Amino acid sequence: MDFTPESGTITMFSTTWCGYCNRLKKQLDAQGIGYTEINIEEVDGTAELVEQINGGNRTVPTVLFPDGTSATNPSAAEVRTRLAA
Fold this sequence. Notes:
This is NrdH-redoxin. The structure is a single chain. This protein is an alpha+beta fold. It has one domain: Glutaredoxin (3-Layer(aba) Sandwich). The chain has 3 helices and 4 strands. It has a 4-stranded mixed sheet with strand order 2-1-3-4, sandwiched between helices. Strand 3 and strand 4 form a beta hairpin. It is globular.
């Protein structure tokens, strides 16, 4: 399954209990940055994808950008900068 987001948005892998995920979502909402959230505890194969991206660690939030790159626990400012590039 391809989780690469459309231009100008991100895909964010998260969990419901992750404080860093909740903080990033609030910041993205406040700045009007679009995202698709995928709960790795509910979508088959996504926890393994997050582990693959993060060298074996199941770290969230993990963000995918339209260019295929990723970031682990980025700031909203980093997300905005990378989307503008």
